[in-house]
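pasting for ref
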Amino acid sequence: MYSAFMQYNEVFVTGGTGLLGRYVCRALIGHGFLPRLLVRTGSEGRIEPDVRERCRVTPGDLTVLESVEMGAQGTSAIVHLAGVWKEQPRRGITFEKAHVHATANILYSASVWGIGRLIFISVAGARPGDPVPFLDARGRAEVLVRGADLSWTVFRPSPWYDLRDGKPRVSTDYLKELAGAIANRFTGRIRSAACTRMHPQTGSRGGNSREIVDEESTGGRHVRGTFG
């Protein structure tokens, strides 16, 4: 579905005010894209000033379908990296809502507006049925993405924050590098038919590197590379 906003090459970004999200927004801007951020009312102040000057902001809640539909309208692609590391049931914040239900809303909105490109940021170890509730929920959200009828990319880096206390556990350089890899997937490929997944592997330097596997849906061609 065409929208006049598409001329701005907008990318719908969830989690854009978070630790990784701010770097993803900067990377997208650096590649000539205009981030459209879905931000909870009252959280606009968390947007970095340099990002705020070069993005659009839609107030909303990922768990409310109407908010997501409104935020995604007119964009060409989606970067979905929002989520929570801790449940707060008394405030209505659960892994089921924040990961699984929110991702379902993203996918539905993409289908409504004809958005054919999605990048989903999962985490290493995420899988349905995992005894760690966070990994279980993120894994089930990932399954939804992999089953969607659009061109998707799933990144599965190590968590960039500690799941016990929410504190950052990676360097700024790592976040910039990961954000750059995410933005690079859009370069010339917003309407690509490629389906890509990124998963952790043990690098020759003894640390963690990430291997990118491209699965071209039309030809089954595999291209491998690494970052990290």
